[in-house]
Amino acid sequence: MTAAERTVIENCAVATVDAAGTEYAAGHVVVAGGVIEAVGDGPAPAGLAAGAARRIDAGGHLVTPGLVNTHHHFYQWLTRGMAQDSNLFDWLVELYPVWARIDEDIVHAGAAGSLAMMARGGVTTAADHHYVFPRGGGDLLGAEIQAAAETGVRFTAARGSMDRGTSDGGLPPDFAVESTDAALKATEAAIDAHHDPSFGSMLHIAVAPCSPFSVSTRLMTEAAELARRKGVRLHTHGSETVQEEEFCHELFGMGPTDYFESTGWLGADVWMAHCVHVNDADIAAFARTGTGVAHCPSSNARLAAGIARVPAMLAAGVPVGLGVDGTASNESGELHTELRNALLAARLGAGEKALTARQALRLGTYGGAQVLGRTAEIGSLEPGKLADLVLWKLDGLGHASIADPVAALVLGPPAPVTLSLVGGETVVEHGRLTRVDEEQLARLTRAQARRLAERAGLA
What we know:
alpha/beta; 4-stranded parallel sheet; 21% strand; globular
């Protein structure tokens, strides 16, 4: 590797989030060819730094792995602020008729807005769970994939599905669901067309039926079989609310975790969103099978779903990452604020020692890589891993009196992003997206939000 292809970042605090939790008060990271070449204490080795294409004196900064968002619904960017005082089921009943009017242009705008907001806040890898496919809506998954490529963020597109409409006892309107066969066929086609399993891939596809109350048992079972035949991961919502648990007992004669196990939906290739209402036996089943959890503290609070038992999950060995969730239930649309909210929610539920600042940072980085199956590539700053990293500015007024940089990042106000790299490519610099015109995007999302409201008869 030639010096002209290297980026050297020096004189900053470094939180590697490796297995040992290694940190340096004033260290360096060297990036070359899209991967991390060196991490350590003090200045970069002279042989690597000499003649580097870019050398950054990052005094007053903390460098961490890029944040990994493990659960989102991008299209909801265009329905923020609705159903403000509702629990999950009432919220869904109010919003499903609106979401059922989405199309390709609307989804692209929603995805672009969601991705831009996350990227500005340090997200370098994002997973989106898109499960609403109205008839005649166009290539909705392709619209999301295009938006991710435009933003420069690494992307896991979880191809969702629903086949249980209101006439079958589900929550979504019938015209917003697919047939079981059509959903399975479209999911397999998405894998064949888009999934890239290579090292450094910018695009993964996951198989992702929506939830027990909008999906038939046949779709759950055959979707799991499809995912394992194709070698991709599985994702769904699980145990989000008390009402969901009651629904599962009424419809299936068992709780959500037992139902998931009966349909093949526990395993090291599975991650579930939320998992708020889980008991000790549920947590043990997740730990035994390696099933992962996408913890979404802000959305759980917004919909009054409850406080997830994250400390107990971590103690049992359950892989846990963080998720923004849809911006209709987390209007900020940012993941870096979830570091703080995860810590605060855990302490409300289990006391002052329930979660530390460093555990919260691990949830947002390595934990996310775990649940997406990408720990060999991302989630920590180690030589040979992808150069997905964030340089946080901590020498301003908001953080200046907090001596511990990790505590400043997690407990302090949202830290400005001076630099965000994805595979060594600059995505954010000095707080601004490098590939997206933010003002133009704001105009686009406003226009598409108005158009969706008009289509749904709300304007």
